Amino acid sequence: MIAVIAMNSHGIFCRLLCSTVFGRRLATHRSLATKVLKENAKTTRTKKLRTADTTASTTVADPVTVPKDVQDYFQARDASVLSLFPPNLLRKCSQNTERFYIADRSVSQQVADVLTRDLPADRLLVEVNPGPGLLTSELLKKHKQNLRVYETESCFESRLKTLGLPDDAFRKADFNGVWRLAYLDSFDGGQRAANLLNDLPHKRRWQDEVNFRLFSVIGSIKFLRYLMNSITYQNEFYSLGRYEMILVMSPLLFSHIASTKESGYKLYRGGTIVFQTYFEHELIGTIPRRHLVPWFHGSNTKKLRTLHQKLLQDGTDEWYLVKIMPRKNLYEYLPPDNLALFASFVTQHFVSRKNRIIPTLEHWIPNSGARLIMNSNYAKSQEKDKKPPVTLPCQLVKSVPLAANDYLEKMTIYTEFGELTPSQVLTLFNEFINWSEFHQSPFVQAVESQKPKQRSLRRLVEEEDTLVDAPDDVMATPIPKVRMRKS
Asked: Which residues contact 123 (CB under 8 A, 6 or more apart)?
């Protein structure tokens, strides 16, 4: 009896031992097996779903349809225009593309009149992104012998060549994306941007006449930023000499280049000062936004962080036709050797428009603020300026000439950089670099440290999609509306 009880207890003990020691392993193996089976089942289901999705996508994506609002508008106006564009281009979002096309015959005629007005017969006329050639057809009637087009999309190449372009007038290249090529060249020392510009006539002398006239529709600040950098570092586009550009741009983009100090802290930036110093600009007309494709069809407009919601809304109605040309007398006010110093001076000090002038300059050259406060030029300026001050609009329809000695009426330790006009910034810069301590100052060392990066695209202005809305007083002065002149 005792032996039986001992055997039973031994069996119970063995079972308990197996359940405690080996049971965990068995349970672990069971859980692992169950997990693997579940993952296999999930993978199988996922693969089937992916196969189904792929099949569905191929069947749905094949017939690309034109957005209904675009189709309704152009069918009511000119249905034949829609057939000239591939549907996939009409569905692109205008916030994510830099290529826009004129899609109206009457606008093409008006733009052609502007482009060929006062244009010598021997001067090259460049059209960027002609698309199906609505504007090209009008230009061929007025300036056929010296015309060149740059198109990116291959689907337009055959149609453009049937319009009767001169021999060797077509170029397949993304001209508006030359800034991107320059950025890639900065990494490997390539010649992509230079190769793109080799076909254009070169003139080394800055004082010569305008070299060529160019037309394009631009959608971002990057192309204009590249033009500023090419002058600053005297490379690539700078080697073409002076040029004349007639560009179509949004009101928001125009505000980046034409704003004055009255515009507010979010529009009048360092890039604005550099642009107005280097270039002359003039607002010569407007173009209905609906006559440019693609349209904006994004549903996430609330996620867009734009500079000014009002300017963005104005851009849905009309875009601006702007004439831009480098200043012929730029070297009289800013010699070539000082261009890089001037750009660095502006970008360093206009990171915030509220930076105070005297404390900032004393950071570079100690005890230099007294020279500005006690400068006799400011006293002379106050004596001469007996007239009441002229209030400028928030944006300049036409650029103003530069001034060599444009001193601020009064300089105090509280004066901010945002209170200066471009000519006053240029005057302050020339005074700063003529101080005896300048060449040993940390400012020169900071500029020298940036020389290896001169080929890279620098951010002369902040991205328009990273800035918050400005105060309401920014738009106190309305943007002038200038209709396109008819010949």
From this structure: 146, 210, 212, 213
